[in-house]
């Protein structure tokens, strides 16, 4: 490793020298993580978003990159929008699950061309309002939004101030809930749990006591296996009905989730880039891994190993 | 420990003391009588008037767009910020590769040997044990990443702090200009620093390092200035009479005389930097903080703890070693030979492990603590959450706390007309401080209104007030108990040490499991975080009460309760006030982070701003937090500044 230390020192000296002489430009759009490529290994940096489904994608990709292709993988947890920015600067090489960010897509993919699309993940995402299934059995008509006001007293909590509580999760997630409550004239208060971890903890506590709750939630999500939930029907989604975020009065769309790669990495990332472009699995697969991570508390690496051991044919195709 | 400088001059004139507050209040009443009718006639309603707000959404939005669009072309970025960013990346990388090249045995040996040289055998063993524990927890590589980042951040902070401190120590004008800035920076919650740095440098290590430097440099600057200014004038005169130049005086007399303060500054800087390690993971610092953050995303308290423990261990070790180095000053011999031995031994160990092929931490040598911890947490939440006979479950307490305390305090604050809030702030700040501090506090509060975040700020304020009240009640009770019983204090000490260095994030999930989502868990986390400092300061203050005073009270036949009430507590008043001040500052820091568990208000806005890259929301909330912190500090701060933050 002496060699690498020396290169680093030489590079540092060179940088200082050019800093002092003031010549040359330092391009902020081309910056890798300082922890990348340590000890001569090829490193891929993946962005992990805060939800467990995203952790599963990354865990399996990481496992295969490390064990089949000989890469070293660094992961960084970044929120969705900042992750786009980090991706465009090369601080991360890939995002494996994106739920649709039209503004960022226009800016970085179409205009600046610093991010390249990496194809679909194979999983379709859907956001909606959910209630626990035990509650839907008690009150069958509660699953229509028109009847929500009738039941608002069921969902009252200390935080919702006399109205029913609609629980939202992390502020980083795509949500129109405040506008929806407003435009559908619902007697509800949106309460932000602040993070998905907090939201899940609260939902499990509620379901343990069979208490009613109404929450913003999304599929695919491993929690459905633990807390069965039924979706509340909102006015149907039509193309463009969510164009004006203040006037939204319709349900969320079904989004085929996308992968994105840093443009340079997509071009010159070798086997790793090719592998990540081919990475494509089903909702079922993702849930299996997520459940192992979040419910059985396996480490992401162990969960990935278990899945990889039993799904050879699926991932062999990604490597070819 | 913070040195407590009481309002000594005032005690000498009891007559003036009795009249000053009345005078101040009268002046305020006159001002209010003139201004309030005008204000309330012009702008009705109790909330801050819309006419007096400035909407920054547009300019901040376009500023953020400008940065993103011009980052790869503007000379400002290409020729200045780009280099800063590259320099940070390269130096962190250099340190990281060096650490990896030394291998786990080399790093452990080097750390232990250095600790042995500066602090003795016991701390050397402790240091080695701490590093081995990091490896045992399976956290060796993340620990090295954090360590690399910390080394660079601490060096940069020390450099920046020392330069600023030197300037303030040598020039009176610089001192006057810098002091309020440094004072202010020390009371700001770390969370408020993140957004502006992220905007310029993007998510990643450079942003994390710079945010850490901004947070950790002030104590170094402050203590350097303090050390230089506190040098014994007689010694300086003696040196001067020898005909030395001013540079010689600085190098041979003033700096060596200030060694103790310089080391204390280093110690403080390291502690502040480490406490930032986890918070900075929100903006991509990587390392241990990122592990904590990722584990919390899947509600895995055990894994979060496994990554949190190395941070605590690093903090405790560095604190003790630098502290011991400070105590040993003046005893050491000025020979460099032992250091050569240390270097040689380190290289030998590193080479030996290289040859033995043990460079990486052996993967079999890890202990999984996540599972038992999670089981314990699950048991706690299953049995305490609700339905406990007689006392009710924690969820019920949380609901009652919210409806009976938090809600009334919040609606009370919102009910107060805005001008009366300003008046109350002015009165409190002026009674405890000077007209200058009162003016700062009022202006800070007014700025919150002008920025249009009056309501969320009062919401945050209500949480702070409730949390501080609970913290003080518990903290004073425990502090008094610890001051009166040595055994109690000995039992408490390690507990306080751990709670104080634990990353704030680790508290968040267990409090959600116990108290649900909302403001109650945010307040609970804040209380747990602020308690140790309050307990410590209270205990120390009570113990420093002049024994002669106690003795005379005892000889007059006072019972121990009377001694406490009539002698100890009044004499410890400065310490108790300091405890209040510290409690408020620490509570605010965590109530803000409580935005992640449903605390809402300003904390939520900051989280939202970071998560959505929405500068307008995040930065305005950040400024409001700064103002709130400033106001709370001025309102609770007795005349003289304390020497440093934390206990």
UniProtKB/TrEMBL annotation, chain A:
Signal sequence bounds: 1-25
Coiled coil: none
Keyword Signal in record: yes
Limits of the ABC-type glycine betaine transport system substrate-binding domain: 42-309
Keyword Mitochondrion listed: no
InterPro entries, per database record: ABC_Gly_betaine_transp_sub-bd
Superkingdom of the source species: Bacteria
Keywords linked to the UniProt accession: Signal
Protein name: ABC transporter substrate-binding protein
Organism of origin: Streptomyces tropicalis
UniProtKB/TrEMBL annotation, chain B:
Location in or out of the cell: Cell membrane; Membrane
Sorted UniProt keywords: Cell membrane, Membrane, Transmembrane, Transmembrane helix, Transport
Membrane topology annotation: Multi-pass membrane protein
SUPFAM superfamilies cross-referenced by the UniProt entry: MetI-like
Residue ranges constituting the ABC transmembrane type-1 domain according to the UniProt record: 143-322, 457-636
Coiled coil ranges: none
Membrane spanning residue stretches: 95-116, 123-141, 147-170, 191-217, 269-288, 295-318, 338-356, 413-432, 438-454, 466-485, 505-531, 575-603, 615-632
Principal cellular location given in the protein's record: membrane
Domain of life: Bacteria
Family according to the record: Belongs to the binding-protein-dependent transport system permease family.
The name this protein goes by in its record: ABC transporter permease subunit
């Amino acid at each position: 490793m002496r060699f690498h230390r020396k290169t680093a020192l030489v590079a540092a000296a060179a940088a200082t020298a050019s800093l002092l002489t003031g010549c040359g430009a330092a391009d902020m759009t081309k910056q890798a993580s300082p922890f990348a490529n340590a000890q001569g290994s090829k490193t891929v940096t993946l962005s992990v978003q805060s939800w467990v489904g995203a952790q599963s994608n990354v865990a399996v990709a990481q496992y295969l990159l490390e064990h089949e292709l000989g890469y070293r993988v660094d992961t960084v947890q970044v929120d969705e929008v900042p992750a786009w920015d980090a991706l465009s600067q090369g601080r991360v090489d890939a995002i494996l699950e994106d739920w649709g960010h039209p503004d960022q897509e226009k800016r970085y993919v179409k205009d600046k061309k610093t991010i390249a699309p990496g194809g679909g993940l194979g999983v379709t995402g859907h956001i909606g309002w959910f209630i626990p299934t035990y509650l839907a059995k008690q009150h069958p008509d509660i699953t229509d939004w028109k009847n929500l006001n009738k039941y608002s007293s069921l969902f009252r909590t200390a935080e919702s101030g006399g109205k029913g509580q609609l629980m939202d999760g992390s502020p980083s997630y795509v949500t129109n809930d405040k506008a929806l409550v407003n435009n559908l004239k619902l007697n509800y208060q949106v309460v932000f749990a602040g993070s998905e971890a907090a939201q899940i903890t609260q939902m499990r506590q509620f379901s343990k006591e069979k208490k009613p709750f109404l929450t913003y939630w999304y599929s695919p999500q491993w929690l459905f296996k633990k807390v069965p939930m039924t979706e509340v029907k909102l006015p149907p989604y039509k193309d463009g009905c969510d164009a004006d975020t203040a006037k939204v009065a319709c349900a969320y769309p079904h989004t085929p989730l996308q992968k994105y790669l840093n443009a340079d990495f997509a071009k010159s990332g070798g086997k790793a880039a090719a592998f990540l472009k081919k990475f494509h699995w089903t909702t079922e697969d993702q849930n299996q891994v997520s459940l192992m991570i979040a419910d059985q508390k396996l480490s992401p690496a162990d969960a990935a190993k278990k899945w990889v051991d039993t799904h050879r044919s699926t991932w062999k195709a990604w490597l070819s | 420990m913070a040195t407590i400088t009481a309002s000594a001059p005032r005690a000498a004139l009891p007559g003036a003391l009795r009249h000053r507050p009345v005078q101040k209040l009268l002046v305020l009443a006159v001002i209010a009588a003139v201004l309030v009718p005008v204000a309330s006639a012009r702008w009705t309603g109790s909330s801050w008037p819309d006419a007096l707000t400035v909407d920054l959404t547009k300019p901040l939005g376009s500023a953020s767009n400008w940065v993103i669009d011009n980052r790869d072309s503007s000379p400002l970025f290409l020729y200045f910020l780009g280099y800063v960013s590259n320099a940070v990346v390269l130096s962190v990388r250099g340190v990281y590769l060096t650490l990896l090249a030394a291998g786990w045995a080399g790093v452990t040996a080097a750390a232990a040997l250095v600790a042995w040289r500066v602090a003795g055998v016991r701390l050397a063993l402790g240091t080695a044990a701490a590093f081995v524990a990091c490896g045992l927890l399976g956290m060796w590589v993340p620990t090295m990443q954090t360590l690399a980042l910390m080394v660079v951040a601490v060096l940069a902070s020390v450099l920046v702090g020392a330069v600023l401190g030197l300037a303030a120590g040598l020039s009176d004008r610089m001192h006057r200009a810098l002091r309020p800035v440094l004072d202010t920076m020390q009371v700001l919650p770390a969370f408020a620093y993140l957004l502006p740095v992220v905007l310029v440098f993007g998510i990643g290590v450079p942003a994390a390092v710079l945010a850490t430097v901004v947070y950790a440099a002030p104590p170094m600057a402050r203590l350097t200035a303090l050390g230089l200014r506190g040098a014994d004038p007689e010694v300086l005169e003696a040196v001067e009479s020898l005909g030395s130049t001013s540079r010689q005086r600085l190098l041979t007399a003033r700096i060596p005389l200030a060694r103790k303060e310089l080391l204390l500054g280093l110690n403080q800087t390291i502690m502040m930097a480490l406490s930032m390690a986890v918070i900075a993971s929100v903006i991509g610092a990587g390392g241990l903080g990122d592990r904590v953050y990722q584990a919390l995303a899947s509600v895995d308290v055990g894994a979060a703890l496994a990554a949190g423990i190395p941070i605590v261990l690093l903090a405790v070790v560095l604190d003790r070693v630098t502290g011991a180095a400070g105590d040993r000053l003046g005893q050491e011999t000025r020979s460099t030979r032992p250091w050569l031995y240390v270097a040689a031994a380190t290289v030998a160990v590193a080479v030996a492990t290289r040859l033995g092929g043990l460079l990486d931490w052996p993967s079999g040598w890890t202990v999984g603590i996540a599972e038992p911890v999670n089981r314990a947490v699950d048991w706690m939440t299953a049995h305490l959450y609700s339905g406990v006979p007689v006392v009710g479950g924690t969820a019920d307490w949380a609901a009652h706390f919210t409806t009976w305390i938090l809600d009334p305090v919040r609606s009370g604050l919102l009910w107060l007309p805005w001008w009366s809030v300003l008046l109350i702030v002015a009165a409190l700040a002026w009674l405890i401080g000077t007209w200058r501090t009162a003016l700062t506090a009022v202006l800070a509060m007014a700025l919150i209104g002008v920025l249009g975040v009056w309501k969320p700020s009062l919401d945050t304020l209500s949480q702070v007030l409730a949390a501080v009240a609970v913290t003080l009640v518990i903290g004073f009770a425990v502090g008094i108990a610890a001051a009166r019983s040595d055994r109690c204090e000995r039992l408490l000490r390690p507990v306080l040490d751990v709670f104080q260095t634990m990353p704030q994030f680790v508290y968040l999930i267990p409090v959600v499991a116990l108290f649900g989502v909302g403001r109650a868990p945010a307040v609970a986390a804040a209380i747990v975080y602020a308690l140790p400092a309050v307990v410590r300061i209270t205990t120390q203050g009570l113990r420093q009460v002049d024994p002669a005073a106690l003795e005379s009270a005892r000889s007059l036949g006072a019972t121990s309760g009377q001694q406490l009430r009539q002698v100890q507590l009044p004499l410890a008043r400065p310490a108790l006030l300091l405890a209040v001040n510290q409690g408020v500052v620490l509570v605010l820091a965590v109530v803000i982070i409580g935005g992640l568990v449903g605390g809402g208000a300003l904390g939520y806005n900051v989280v939202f701003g970071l998560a959505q890259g929405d500068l307008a929301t995040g930065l305005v909330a950040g400024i409001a937090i700064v103002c709130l912190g400033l106001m709370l500090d001025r309102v609770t701060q007795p005349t003289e500044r304390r020497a440093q933050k934390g206990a």
